[in-house]
Design goal:
Elements: H1 6-18, E1 43-48, E2 55-60, H2 64-77, H3 82-87, H4 90-96, H5 105-120
Helix pairs in contact: 1-2, 2-5
């Protein structure tokens, strides 16, 4: 993401990342999993992976851009232990990946809600 060439290249990379998102099943898209403050609805929750029987963080949004941002964030979040994730600075990670510049102010505010959720799961 950080090395994508130009606006179009970065947007394309974000959308491609969204295709790799560990999608939260529709049955898990509950009010408890809904992140408040997002322009597009966003659900984030922990669930057991059927492949590994491990707890993973999964998410879903109908917005292709938001799904891409979620994919990048969850790739990092799922690579950390619970303790590491709770202390991790996801906002700094977003800046390092140049994700923030691709979000409108309202989408950015919603993603801040996602970042807070990641630190509390």
């Amino acid at each position: 993401m950080a090395t994508a060439k130009g606006w179009d290249g970065a947007t394309r990379a974000i959308m491609l990342a969204g295709k790799k998102l560990v999608a939260l099943p529709e049955s898990a898209r509950t009010e408890d999993a809904l992140v408040p403050g997002c322009e597009s609805k966003v659900w984030v929750a922990c669930l057991y992976s059927p492949d590994t029987s491990e707890l993973v963080i999964a998410a879903y949004s109908p917005s292709k851009i938001i799904r891409g941002v979620l994919a990048v964030l969850l790739e990092k979040a799922n690579s950390l232990s619970d303790e590491q994730r709770k202390a991790y600075d996801f906002e700094q990670y977003m800046n390092a990946c140049n994700l923030q510049r691709h979000l409108s102010q309202s989408r950015g505010n919603g993603i801040l809600g996602v970042l807070r959720r990641l630190n509390t799961l």
